[in-house]
Amino acid sequence: MHEHWIRVEDVANRPYTETVELFREHINPGLVSLLEMGEYTDINPKSAHGAIITSHSGRKIIDFVSSYGALNLGHNHPHVMQAMQDVMAENRLDLSKELLSPYTAFLARNLSLLTPKGLNKIYFCNSGTEAVEAALKLASRCFKGTRPVFIYADNALHGKTIGALSVTGSLRLREHFPTMPAQSMPYGDSGALKQLLQKNSRDQHQQVAAVILEPIQGEAGVVIPPVGYLREVRKLCDEFDVLLILDEIQTGMGRTGTFLTCEQEEVVPDIIAMAKSLGGGVATIGATIASEKVFKTAYENPHDCLVQTSTFGGRATACAAAIAALEVLQDENLLENTGTRGKQLLSGLKALQQKYPQWISEVRGRGLMVGIEFNVDVIDKARYLPLKIPGLKTVLKEHLPGMVAAALLKQYDILGTLMLNNRAVLRVYPPLIVTEEQIAYFLDSLDNLLAQGPKELVKTRVNHAVGKSGLKFIGSWAKSFLRK
Length: 484
Ligand SMILES: Cc1ncc(COP(=O)(O)O)c(C=O)c1O
What we know:
CATH architecture of the largest domain: 3-Layer(aba) Sandwich
CATH superfamily of the largest domain: Type I PLP-dependent aspartate aminotransferase-like (Major domain)
Number of strands: 15
Bound molecules: pyridoxal-5'-phosphate
Strand content: 5-15%
Radius of gyration: 23 Å
Number of helices: 19
Largest sheet: 7 strands, mixed
Number of domains: 2
Helix content: 40-55%
């Protein structure tokens, strides 16, 4: 054994400061700086159950992020944990590509009972971006590679591997990477899609394989399309003989009040991508679910069947967890709870918007997929810029929801965070098991925080950031915003 080795049984007992410093040294120093500014690194997490994370010092933090929608059942749900542990305890075969696991088989069977009619062919992988990659490859494959173009929506987020990134509408994420041929369109505008499809159909080099969409855009800031949009997109895809891929990675598994969000418009896509909460918040699993017509172009014969595979995709432990997760959704009536608690949350936030119009410009949401859009100009009213740093105000505006999240954590023990593609929006994604009292506590806390006024918020956060990271760091950060 190496003389500096730390054994696995000792890891949990090491001082937490070592964890933070090891992240800084070996993993992601930029992220550590960001988390330090929000005082997230002050929390040494000990355990997590349901909606609550408990720290070593005994702080009980309510999770209103749910790991971006991966914890719809809350943390460490006992039924999901038990299902995985049963597979392990009996030394059942977890991982083999040659020997077929009944857990993979029965997950496919059970999952296809819940998906729209006709969508019952499934490829299992380990993450959202992989599920999207497989969907894009399946669509290309379906047209034998003759259709090079994908259409996606502005501000969409479908993942960070090159294929999924090519249909992700964020310059910040895309810059410096080569991407596949893809064209963007405004989200929610079926007329714009029609024009794009018409234009492409006249050019033999711009043939479109598929349109990929989130039924409600998550990282764009919870953007809900007009009623009927998905149906119109489906119609256009049929008219132009183009496939429709719906990314339900964030909107699926009950987040918006139905198992899949496409059910709400009775739209049946050709391919659905799922991940996040499919593993019940315990296992890592993604799935690409397709119709027979599409699927058979990829997996029907021994020659082609290994074109898209994944070493760990569909392992028994993850599939057992997913079967159990689907059971929890049904057994605990979580769709119903999502509807009721979602209404409570949304109406409470709308009341806060009326009370604090200088702070909140819009509240959007369906079920428990909710975003609060802040009026970033409230920063101008703070009249607190103690430092003569050019660009500081821009940084503060960009980080307003981040500052609100940091204050919620520090003062009220609520875990919140912002959105990847829209920095004006605070994500409000409690787990679907959230209680009436927890939602009421969140609303009261936000009310109290906003009542303190913008100056208080800016003052506390700026002073903390300068104290932690130093003036020089803040200055160079501000400069990077000015360069943009
Ligand atoms: C809608 C959507 N699609 C795809 C992804 C990528 O999923 P993963 O991070 O598991 O690769 C995400 C992640 O946030 C997402 O929100």
